[in-house]
Amino acid sequence: MLLKDLFAVTMLLSIYGLLSATFFVAMDAVDVAFTEASVGAGISTLLLLVVISVTGRRERRVRHKPYAALFVVILTSMLLVFGTSDMPYFGSADAPIHNHVAPRYLNDSMQEINVPNIVTAVLASYRAFDTFGEVVVIFTAGIGVLALMSVSSKALSKSQPLNRPRGLYEQHLVIRIVAKTLFPFIFLFALYVQFHGDFGPGGGFQAGVIFAAAFILYAMLFGLDAATKVIKPAVIELLAALGVLLYGSVGIVTLLNGGNFFDYDYLLADPIAGQHLGILIIELGVGITVTCVMIMICFGFSLRRRAYEQKVAIRPKEGAV
Amino acid sequence: MDLVISISSGICLLLGSFICVSGSIGLLRFPDFYTRMHATSVTETSGVALILIGLMILSPDLLVFAKLVMILLLGLLIGPTTGHVLAKAAYHNGLKPKLTKSGNEQSSVPSSERGGDISKS
Amino acid sequence: MFIGLANTWVAILLMMIGLYIVIAQGNLIKKIIGLTLFQTSVFIFYISMAKVEGGTAPIFSSDISIYSNPLPHALILTAIVVGISTTALALSLIVRIKEAYGTIEEEEIQGLDEEQD
Fold first, then answer.
1. Each residue of A99-134: pLDDT tens digit?
2. Do C77 and A6 touch (CB under 8 A)?
3. C6-52+67-116 has which fold?
4. Which of A31, A90, C39, C95 is the most exposed place for a label (fewest CB within 10 A)?
């Protein structure tokens, strides 16, 4: 509304993401807070900044008076507030939400699945089919970004790299050295989050975002060319598909063993061991897919931005359309 | 012994909170980008370090202690680095520090560039 | 007595701010940011619904008896990552619009479209 600088807006959104993560901790949702801190304050800010560097930092102008929008918003909010009069009060234990499936999850998951983190049990075992759908949505979004952002590699490699000031790279000496010392710890932490998700807050989604953050940090500091040498875009695309395939194939194996889709009791002779194996494998699939899709999105944006800059540099001021 | 532990950790926590609050006030009140950077750097190194040390004294077992040490090391490594990178980026993009009116150095700075706000750079 | 509903009202307030930005702002990036705010308000609504008075995080421990509801946590955890993926898709569409039209202001794009007709 008042801020015309999109950079400041993005930074405020990042701070908002971090604050909502602390709110989630206060509301006992530690897994959600973890995800929100890494996604809302990290990756989404980065994506917005890359896009702003393409589209321009300033907003143009305000056109007309927003009375119609204000009217719609006030009317909707009054209807919604009217609707809250029947809602259960905050924190009340006898609210309908706590009385249907939640008691079963809380009481029986320790006997049925034997995983201390009940959120992981719900996410990966009871509602595995649902999570499979979410992973497919993430994969599809990654494919969509790839389709929209893909640059023909010929056009990019033939033309000379941008005449960007070399001094800019030499400036990064301190942060490069610090980041190099940090990379092993970031990967170690991501692996810890990935495989400790059964016992504490963590799991495939969070670990995937942390892995991706490490690769994106590398790409930011050492250039996109160095990063694509470390991990080739074709390999990333293949791995993203492989993660979804790994997830789905667990369901197929349970079907073949005579159970329902994603009924891990049939994976091994011992149901509890089967549950543990199933959760481990699908968390791995989720982690691989999320990592690769996030890297794919960020690399896609950066490559597109570079191609755009080259186009602008070759044909300056050609005008719109 | 309990009394000593709680008093010492309380002193650390209070000092850390004081530094954090003064850093926030500095962020709001200081005139230009570099002095504000100074305020936030002080907050994220000594303020955070004191609070973490206060929590370490209180920590019940070795695992919590080790985690706090890791957080402290990470903060001490990353905080100064981000400060360095931010200040360097601002300087290389032509943001000049705002100098005092009585200082003689300000004559070298063109008046149009003297604005302290980062959005003017 | 209505203070127990404050969590839903905060969620409604955030949601309406997001809706207002989506409707009233012409800049496409600001529209996406409004959509993100809208999304986060739904997260806050779900997570605050899951809280039980006196409960703790739903990680099993032998000396705790009351836990918050784990089901909304599992739903929102996946929704956050799905949300960033779809936001990335929207942002890539914005980049393509910028390349095609040279602007990301809604009215200017409409004006350019009408010129072509």
1. 888 888 888 888 888 888 888 888 888 889 999 999
2. no
3. Helix Hairpins (1.10.287)
4. A90
> What confidence tens digit (pLDDT) does each residue in C98-107 have?
888 888 888 8
Using DSSP, how many helices (H) and how many strands (E) does chain C show? 4, 0
Confidence bin at A167 (pLDDT 50/70/90): low
Q: What is the pLDDT, as a whole number, of residue A170?
A: 60
Question: Does residue B113 or residue A274 have the better pLDDT?
Answer: A274
ipTM of the complex: 0.92
Listed by start position, the domains of chain B span 2-99+108-120
Enumerate residues 6+ apart whose C-beta is below 8 A from C51.
A27, A28, A90, A91, C68, C69
Q: Enumerate the residues of chain B whose CB falls inside 8 A of the CB of residue A174.
A: 81, 84-85
Dihedral of the CA atoms A58, A59, A62, A66 (nearest 10)? -140
Residues of B in Cβ contact (< 8 Å) with A182: 77-78
* 68-107 of B, contacting A, C-beta below 8 A: 74, 77-78, 81, 84-85, 88-89, 92
> 């040490």: which residue's tokens?
B69
